[in-house]
Amino acid sequence: MDSVYKLAMPDPQRAAIYEAPVVALVGTGERQSDVGLLSCSATGEVRYWDRVVFGLGGTDRFYTKDLELLDAADRCTQIKEVYPGLFIIATRKGSLYQVSLHNGEGATEVNARLLSKSSGARSGMLSRVSSLLGGGAYSSSAATAVGSGDALVSLAGGSRTEIRHSRELFVLSREKLFKWIVSRSQPEKFVYSLDLSHALGDCVAQKVGADAEIRSYDVAVARGGNICLLLGLQIPQRPAEVQMAIAVLHSDQISTAPDVLGLWLLDNIWAGPLSQEGAERPHLALPERGPAMYVVSRNAVVVSIVPTFGVAFEEAIFFRDDDFVLGISDRNKHSARSSQESPESCLTLSCFGAGVLSVSAHTGKIFSSSSLADSAHGGIGANYTTLDHDILPTGWPDSRTRVGEPSSIDSTERRFKNQIEQAVFFGMENSRNPLSFAISSQTNGIDTALENAVLRVSQSIVNNTSHFITDRLDLGAHLKERLYRAHSVMHFVSDNGLTEKLSLATRVQLCAHAEKLVAANALWEYQNDIWAKKLGPASQLLDNLVASFLESIGLQSKDPLRVFFKHHVASISEMLVFMHRNLGVLRKALESSESGIRDSQHIAYEANRIALVSLQSAFTFRFQNAHLYGTVSDSGSSDYLPDPRENETVLAENWTEHAAIIDLLLERLEGSYRLCRDISGHHCSAIYERIERTNLPNTEYVGDRKQQVLSVFDDAVSVSHLPSDDGSGAIGGDVHARLETDDPYNSSLALLYATINQMGPLANLCFRVFVDRIAFLHQTRPNEAASLSRRYEAVRPRYLLCLVPISRAPIAFRLAEEYRDLASLIMLVFTTDRANAAEHMRNYVGRFGKEFADTLFVYYERRQAWASLLYTQDGVFDEWLKQFIDERPVDGTDGPMSQIGWIHDVKMSDFAAAAAKLTRAGCDSDDVDQARTMLSLGKLAFAIVESQETTHSDTITKAHTRLEDALEMCEVQETLMRYFTVLIGEIKESSHEYIWRRRDDINDRKASLDVAMLTTTPECRHSYPALYIIYSELVRRIWNGSALGVEDLIDVLTFPDNTSSVGNQNNNDDADSTERYNQLVHDRCALAVDILSRASFNLPERTREAALRTIWRRVFLSDNWPALATSLRGNVPDSHLRTQLLNTRLYSTLKSCVAMRELAHPIWYVLPTDALVANDTDYLVHTRLGPQFSQEPSASAKWRPLSTATDAAMLRDYAGEDKRLRAAIDSGLSGYYDEVLRIVMDEINTDDGMAASYAESTQAFGEGSDTQSLGSNNVDNGNDDVAMDSD
Question: How far apart are the C-alpha atoms of 16 and 98, rounded to whole Å?
Fold first, then answer.
């Protein structure tokens, strides 16, 4: 500041209340650089200093004039220059005074007169006469510019008129718009008065409603004579807000009232204090008469461009709370007389704190040729015309998939976008900036307008389409600036507390925009480094790839790298995928010579660098800024995964999550491993031998995704052959000491070392992309997520374990820990540091808890090494082991868990669980000896449970009962084995002691065939050949000690028709056993029913019914009913009938079932007519027997039948049984069955009656003589004898 002048205003003591004067700067001509100053006090005293810069002779030297206000209470409020040297001063009550600064000869002289609505020379004369007479007497209503009850608001100078030295003057009051013509040399002329509410009522009603209140704030005149009014529309529904609007009026005739061209609402809503007078009144400025408009309030400036038919551009600039606008000047730096219209418009502001500021609008940058509508008069219905928006690239996936391109931008969105651009490009670097960039959102939840705005700004930065980004020759600096601006978008949102107003998908996209710029920066630095080192042909890989990529999308350039990094950063992921899809062809074309093979290896190495440089830098940025972008979970983890507690869905696919990126990284990993193998084969034998001896899991899965995914624990893909790693990171004795400093282009060992060092980061990136994509697909396509998860589970252990032979086991450990691949972690421990495995396991159990323990249990289970776990002495670990065992499926095939788990239960003193496991193991066992042992141990465990508990639950009781039933089945089968042994011994006259235990396949087959033949008749073998084959096979299984199922055991018991008792010839000590064998043979059919009843709880209904019909059908067929019917024809006494029936197998079976085994009737009994096999043929042949005996068994099948029985043969045999049964029924079997059943029931009732009567007599005898105790005992003994005989 050079000089400060203090100019003496009129004495404030003359005013009743001090009010600041109105002041205007006066230009002194084009040839002089000085400036004058015109001021008018509130009471009407005018003072003029003609030169205040260079020619000021003293601050007390000025020209003065008193306006002599008509009303002493009135105050001067505005001053407006309408023509050079001609000013209008207005008062609060609407009086207008014309003040001229020069006389007719051009000399400086201040003259003033009151404007009157009366026209012609008479009004001028009256005015001058009034002035000469003191001015106070002239009080005609014509001297007031506005009517009574109205108040003046603003003045505006218009265009020139035909009258010499004249201008249009527009006066805006609260209710009306007035037009005058004023001149320095001619009298003023009042032209018209326009009622605003009447003229604008229809437009306002159409825009905001008929009940809106119209407030006038300012008036200005644009090019072509259009009158622009700044209005405020007060809507009753929103009393705290004022909707600003611009009304444009036009008149073809100078003397006629104008018509309304249009009313357009501004986007910005004023919620602060506004007034129609004083400092709170907003102003409308049109430098150079447009097209740029400036709406200036105390704390904000809104720049808008209103063409003839709509608001085409609008942007708001806000000031801080401690700064505000004091005054404005719309004089442009370009001369108004210039023949060419300047595209730049400038408004000068005088601010309280910031001083003098300028706001400029460059219309040439804002508009394109298609920005404005070319239709004529369409104005009232249109809000605004549509600008050319930033064209989003076709690259995938990007913000256009989230935002789209609407035909027009929402007003709130436009306001957000403008404010964000101001903050990002002008407000983030200078903390002393007087402008305020604070924004707020009143929307509950997600604000869609804010989302669209931030994405548009961010996308324009990524695509380099923003007008605020300056082009630079230094591309690196240019990329860094764009990255800074893109990152500033989220900083600005966060600083204003609006992060939660953006959805997770939007935040992910904002982060993705910045990530792409980070990757672009890293790639450009990578390429600059290569250029600086001037490496071989492979160093041009990125340049050539980018050129080919641009050509693939139809673009060609002499400098493709610069074009790509300037305008196509959004397509960086597409470029990487393009590299992946074309790299193999390039390498294959080179590998035609030895030098070409080296170039191919270098290209593979550089492709790894490109992938690592771009993706690693992007992920690093993502993790470092996870909190800023709100992509971090509440737990504090930096994993870029949506928090499952959030109810948001990420609909946009991130650029690093694309399936092609996964394929790229997998190919780079697999190719790098092959490259290490190829190079080490010629230059490093230590590495080569390790790689060759390594058997990695899921090798087939890499090339074919349909292959079955095998666990890393499976023996078929075991990595137990991995060589031990000392963890030092050295790669073998062939590598010299200064390997790390060697150039990969000059040394094959250096290339090997560099490629090995790339393997760990590549694996890390690959796993991260898998995790992110799976998380995304879980929300959108769950089926694809499951498929990708299976693929991830297959490739992750493969690329973890491939780090071991190249001496990068520590990296494998870190990655396995980070991605919680606990199975691979266990394999790494046991294959690289077995000596310290126990210590590692304790550490990992403490770190990962039960999850790691369960994985360790699976490892031991797969390797049949349960005994190692049973020796642990840790209570928590033992409890986890027990839970793991209890959760395993009953029919699991992973080791002897059910057979050994009970040992752990005993260790934990859980005998009930031990008994249940033992029972299950016994029932599931294929070996009779083992089953009997397990069931016996289970019985012992149940005995301990019963001894410890006074009351037993129903569950324990049922389990105990089922154990007893299973144990009895084992005893039955074991008895059958011994019976067959004794039978063969008698027939073959050889010792039968333990013949069945020898497990000699040839002799076993022969013995089983002997047993089958000895226990069946030739008629049976001839009538049922297929069933006989099945019976022989079942006998062979029994002979070999294999446990049979319930249905198979029933077949063994019921099919033979030639069972005979055996004697005790060679083993006198085994008389009880011989009796047991004979009893079983005699009672085998009733035993079969009994076994079925005990096992029925575990059988399907159809199976149970088919087995029951089979038993009774064969019981019925064991007697010759037609022969019996023939013998009973004629006159036969009842005794003979009874004798014949008592000799049948039916009688003995019914007697055993009803009397001895007490099987409920009629549940376990079948009538002859219901025992036909026709109802069960399909099940028996095709479901039960066919898969075992009529089909060729698999190579892994335990049993291969001696000969097969076709389905047709079995059907014929069952049809033969039905035929015989129908013949028996025709011979009266149904009647015989009823009679035999009555005989059995009568015998039971008779025995029960005798026992009851004898008990009554014994009780009476005891009551009659108390002294006959000895006799009573004798009677009891006799009763015992009777009861025994009865039994």
Answer: 25
Phi, psi of 220 (to 5 degrees): -150, 160
pLDDT the model gives residue 634:
41
- By CB neighbour count within 10 A (0-12 exposed, 13-18 middle, 19+ buried), where does 907 fall? middle
On whether the CB atoms of residues 184 and 112 are closer than 8 A, the answer is: no
Contact between 263 and 380 under an 8 Å Cβ cutoff? The reply is: yes
The angle formed by the CA atoms of residues 798, 803 and 805, to the nearest 5 degrees, is 105
Q: For the segment 1046-1067, what is each residue's pLDDT rounded down to a tens digit? A: 999 999 889 888 776 665 544 4
- The Cα-based distances of 184 to 63, 113, 124 in angstroms read 18, 11, 12
Cα dihedral value 76, 79, 82, 85, nearest 10? 100
Amino acid present at 885: I
Cβ pair 679, 752 in contact under 8 A = yes
State the Rg of the chain over Cα: 53
DSSP H helices, 989-1100, are: 1001-1014, 1018-1023, 1025-1039, 1046-1054, 1071-1082, 1084-1095
What residues contact 970, with CB distance under 8 A and at least 6 apart?
A: 922, 928, 931, 932, 935, 1043
For β-strands 325-329 and 86-91, DSSP reports them as: unpaired
Name the residue among 1120, 1121, 1103, 1058 with its Cα closest to residue 1084: 1058
Q: Which ranges in 802-927 belong to alpha helices (H)?
A: 809-818, 822-832, 837-848, 850-862, 866-869, 875-887, 897-907, 911-924
Task: Determine the pLDDT at residue 268.
Answer: 66
Residue among 753, 750, 747 at smallest CA distance from 730: 753
Read out DSSP for 420-433?
Answer: HHHIIIIISS-TT-
Buried/exposed 1056-1094: b ≥16 CB within 10 Å, e otherwise: bbebeebebeeeeebeebbeebbebbbbbbbbbbbbbbb
Higher pLDDT, 122 or 1215: 1215
Residue 332: how many CA atoms within 13 Å on its side-chain side? Answer: 22
> How far is it between the farthest Cα atoms of the chain?
171
Which residue, 126, 97, 102, is CA-closest to 112? 97
Cβ atoms of 306 and 245 closer than 8 Å: no
Structure tokens at 668: 């780079």
Residue 1071 main-chain phi, psi, to 5 deg: -65, -40
Q: How far apart are CA 166 and CA 460, in angstroms?
A: 50
> Cβ distance 1071 to 1062 under 8 Å?
no
Q: How far apart are CA 458 and CA 463, in angstroms?
A: 9
Structure tokens belonging to residue 710:
């095998």
Q: Which amino acid is at 225?
A: G
Q: pLDDT band at 585, cuts 50/70/90?
A: confident
Q: How far apart are CA 1024 and CA 1018, in angstroms?
A: 10
Lowest mean pLDDT among 262-271, 717-726, 1237-1246: 717-726
Is residue 1191 scored above 80 in pLDDT? Answer: no
Residue range 1240-1251, pLDDT digits in tens: 999 888 866 555
* DSSP 3-state of 1163: coil
pTM of the model: 0.62
Confidence at residue 738, expressed as pLDDT on a 0 to 100 scale = 43
Using the predicted structure, report yes or no on whether residue 736 has a pLDDT greater than 60. no
Residue 1014 has pLDDT above 80, yes or no: yes
**Tokens 């000025």 — which residue?**
62
Edge to edge, the sheet with strand 292-296 lists 283-285, 292-296, 300-305, 313-319, 435-436
pLDDT score of 463: 92
Residue of higher predicted confidence among 794 and 1195 = 794
Alpha-carbon torsion 318, 323, 327, 328, what sign? negative
Residue 82's contacts (CB-CB under 8 Å, 6 or more residues apart) are 88, 157, 158, 167, 168, 169, 182
Separation between Cα atoms, residue 1001 and residue 1007, nearest integer Å: 10
